[in-house]
Design goal:
By secondary structure, this protein is α/β, with parallel strands linked by helices. It is 34% helix and 15% strand. The chain contains 9 helices and 10 strands. The strands form 4 sheets. A 3-stranded parallel beta sheet has the order 1-2-10, with helices on one face. α1 links the parallel β1 and β2. α1 runs parallel beside α9 and α4 crosses α7. Bound molecules: flavin-adenine dinucleotide. The site of flavin-adenine dinucleotide (FAD) has 22 residues, from α1, β2 and α6.
């Protein structure tokens, strides 16, 4: 039987993970990425002035990122991470200096809560309120619908100092969004999964290589080893889904001179089919594009 041909659109974490699993499962897999490099919102690039490689995206992973860590294991990239023995994060304050959220050597479930209670950049009262607030937020589910992180923190009585020295850095680091706009429900999920799910979930795994190298290199290798193809600089201009009985039948176009032309694409639908409208999408630079091409995977 001929293997099913699947085209994955987008070479970020999600697209790469899907393509790796499809290729390994025996599907004829083609991954198309609009930009000239893989990684999506998580990539590294060389600074044009200093030449230094800069990471953009989640360069520090928590143990609670189980799917991301599974994915790295799956593509053989786990050894590129250095995992902390216990949670330890330093925060800097202009006047108070450095303070650590650091877990003591106590049994697992107690580690992260005690790390909050020992946080030096807050007074004793604020630390207790910090811990109680974290517990209350983590326990709240539907009650947070429609609330922002800033509103939810006010609901559980967090002081401006606690917000400035702990909550806001945490919200921005984990949600990539200011507390005034970030939704409270996913933030509560972060607290539940990171601070109240045991010691392994709370500790950090830091990449020992640039972010692109951490996972796009090995992911591409895994796709190609499974017989798949990865094409960068290939923007999909349209998807034309046919009747429900043929799910996934789609067509694609590419704007990359180096990539195969639309007519050479092994789309499942015939080119003459009404579903197939190959046309070139203008290549656009994303707002988050790096100033120069990143390290290629
Ligand atoms: C600074 C920063 C910090 C972050 N920190 C964390 C964190 O601590 N924890 C966490 O969980 N997450 C974090 N994130 C978010 C995380 O990086 C993203 O959720 C994740 O990378 C998204 O992956 P994705 O594959 O879903 O989407 P994307 O990364 O957006 O990938 C989509 C890809 O599809 C491509 N594409 C789009 N349209 C087309 C088309 N028509 N044709 C071809 N290709 C197309 C895009 O170019 C892109 O490469 C952070 C993000 C940033 C920027």
């Amino acid at each position: 039987m001929t293997a099913r041909h699947v085209v994955v659109v987008g070479g970020g974490f999600a697209g790469l993970a899907a393509a790796v699993r499809l290729a390994r499962a025996g599907a004829r897999t083609t991954l198309l990425e609009r930009r000239p490099f893989l990684g999506g919102r998580a990539y590294s690039f060389a600074d044009p002035v200093t030449g230094e490689v800069v990471d953009n995206g989640p360069h520090a992973l928590m143990g609670a990122y189980t799917e991301a860590l599974d994915f790295l294991r799956e593509i053989g990239a786990s050894a590129k991470l250095r995992v902390q023995p216990r949670l330890r994060v330093a925060l800097a304050h202009p006047e108070l200096g450095l303070g650590e959220v650091a877990a003591p050597a106590v049994p697992g479930p107690l580690q992260a809560p005690l790390a909050l209670l020992r946080y030096r950049l807050l007074g004793r009262g604020d630390r207790v309120r910090l811990f109680a607030g974290a517990l209350r937020l983590a326990a709240r589910g539907r009650g947070l619908a429609g609330r922002t992180v800033a509103e939810a923190l006010a609901d559980v009585g967090q002081s401006p100092a606690a917000c400035a020295r702990f909550w806001h850095p945490l919200a921005i680091a984990t949600l990539n969004e200011t507390p005034e706009t970030a939704a409270a429900a996913p933030f509560a999920a972060v607290l539940r999964r990171a601070f109240f799910a045991g010691a392994r979930a709370a500790r950090f795994a830091l990449a020992t290589v640039p972010l692109s190298e951490l996972y796009t290199t090995d992911a591409r290798r895994a796709i190609e080893a499974g017989g798949g193809t990865v094409v960068t600089g290939a923007a999909v201009a349209s998807l034309a889904l046919e009747a429900e009985r043929t799910p996934g039948r789609s067509c694609c176009a590419t704007d990359a001179a180096s990539a195969p032309t639309p007519s050479s694409w092994p789309c499942r639908a015939p080119r003459s089919s009404a579903c197939c409208r190959p046309r070139c999408a203008p290549r656009r630079r994303s707002a988050r594009s790096p100033p120069s091409a990143p390290r290629r995977s």
